[in-house]
Amino acid sequence: MKNKKEKIEISEIFSSLQGEGKYAGTPMLFIRTYGCTKRCPWCDTRYAIEGSKYKEMTVNQLVKIIKNYEGLYICWTGGEPLLQRKGILEVMLATSYKNHHLETNGDVLIKEDFETFEYLAISPKDKQIAIKVVDLLQDISGEYDIKVVTDLDKIGKDLIPYATMLMPLSTYNKKKDLQIQRKVWNYCIKYNFNFTPRYQYWIWGKKRGI
Q: pTM (2 decimals)?
């Protein structure tokens, strides 16, 4: 492989279990990129967005890490990974035998991304983006989910019509979070939605690298 000069801003890399969505419980290597298009007040990874150090890593460095990972699944997460689409695609091209997943808010999502990643977990944060994502899904045969984070009150309620699964909002108040979890659970039963857990927070709290 030729030396690649393209660099990607990385917040952290760690192996863990997927805590959310269709692949919850699956071992994965998580590559968290730095930077985002949003500044959501409830974000649990603000360290990947602002006010934190990050590493500039080359394509070759990331390829080596992925090749040394014994598992099959690689999850690109953030922040918003697609801000660094060019570098990520170079890494993926050199490690195409791995199964690459993407976690994105959908802000800069394009149709070609569905042909690139084996699975996309799309979590739009506003109605305009949700509508855009649904439009992009026309004639798409790839594997994806539209994961709406909601408390069924102020956050995410207007996005529910576009969702394939619902995830309870985390406020980091255990009593309040349990109430939201149960509320979303019952809503999913009543209206036939898939419910996604958030195991990494439920088991480990705010611990990083999980």
A: 0.93
